[in-house]
Amino acid sequence: MLSGGSYYGPYEKKVILENDFDGYGGVGQGAIIDSEEGDWYGLIFQDRGAIGRVPTLMPCRWIDGWPMLGDENGHVPLTMQKMTYPSENVKGILGSDEFDNEKLSLYWQWNHNPIDDRWTLTERPGFLRLKTSRLADNLYLAPNTITQRMEGPKCEATISMDVSKMKDGDVAGFSAFNGHSGLLSVIKEGKKKRLVMSTNVVNFSEGPGKKIEGIDVEEKAEVALNKEVVYLRIVADFTSHKDTASFYYSLDNANWKKLGTDVKMRFDYTRLFMGSKFAIYNYATKSLGGSVDIDFFHFTKSNSQD
């Protein structure tokens, strides 16, 4: 850090933080902030593998006019006393959703600008209905894909999906979504459905105005699906640079089976420049008119480093 008595200097230089950040690099922009109670903190972002860029909060101690970051030993603590919020009603940016409100929770992000007449929370109260809206041949071009960021060190999410109204050629499911994605997809082919675990890697053109040039798709495993409701689960592990996503399904939300292989998630600024997300999708490859109903999205997080 540089400090000077005026804009024109002269300046002194001092290292205000030196920490290995659990072996991750990529520490970037940030600021020094104070609370209503008069406590000071440093807030910076840090690249932490496939989870993406995460905010990192740490104590700040003023010593001889310098804002020294970290605890008394200069380390960024793994846990801290939670700051006092001005309101007890402050919510986090991630969480479970029963889809029982008429307005969509602010937990969610659309992957593209939404087509608002092709999704609804009111046609079937207690469910998010995703209707096909235009033809697409892959997840990256699919409209009305709804997402939530993943969270470390570990997290998992489960959805319940009613697939009874899918049409021939429709693809709907749950994804660990990024430039390198893992998917659990229900694919309707004629009168039959199959549940497929696959990987998708998107390839973009070079230069400004990137365009999708192709998708490398590899199907890892599949099972025939004879039920109208299927439960899908993704378990993400970001500990010790693992960055893996595992895929499970159930027909009763009690007995679970793993499908396919673990996927190595990545944070790639040359592609999508974002951390990994959970994504729920439904798109048509042949004709419009199909839909799926999502009963719930259940999110849990673990702080375990094991």
Question: What is this structure, in a nutshell?
Answer:
The protein has 306 residues and is an all-beta fold.
- Give the CATH topology of the largest domain: Jelly Rolls
Order of helices and strands: EEEEEEEEEEEEEEEEEEEEE
CATH architecture of the largest domain: Sandwich
Low-confidence stretches: none
Binned, the helix content reads: under 10%
In the CATH hierarchy, what is the class of the largest domain? Mainly Beta
Intertermini distance: 35 Å
Main sheet attributes: strand count, strand direction, barrel closure: 8 strands, antiparallel
**Radius of gyration, CA atoms, in whole angstroms:** 23 Å
**How many strands?**
21
Q: Compute the average pLDDT.
A: 91
Summing up helix and strand content along with how strands pair, one would put the structural category as: mainly beta
Please count the helical segments: 0
Domain Beta-xylosidase C-terminal Concanavalin A-like: 96-299
GO molecular function: hydrolase activity, hydrolyzing O-glycosyl compounds
Keywords: Carbohydrate metabolism, Glycosidase, Hydrolase, Polysaccharide degradation, Xylan degradation
Organism: Bacteroides reticulotermitis JCM 10512
